[in-house]
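Duplicate of earlier report; Chloramphenicol acetyltransferase input re-posted below.
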Amino acid sequence: NFFAPVFTMGKYYTQGDKVLMPLAIQVHHAVCDGFHVGRMLNELQQYCDEWQGGA
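Output:
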């Protein structure tokens, strides 16, 4: 069953004043569209910005 999304996160690191972390997302095209992945990434970025005090 490959319908569940797979999230692979790398080690976070700092670059200048930013904290960066590699993130790979694998989804099956039958159950998820790129639009939905993009929407989720935008929300994740907002949460990270709020956590870092950037928003």
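The chain has one domain: 6-52.

Merging into the original ticket.
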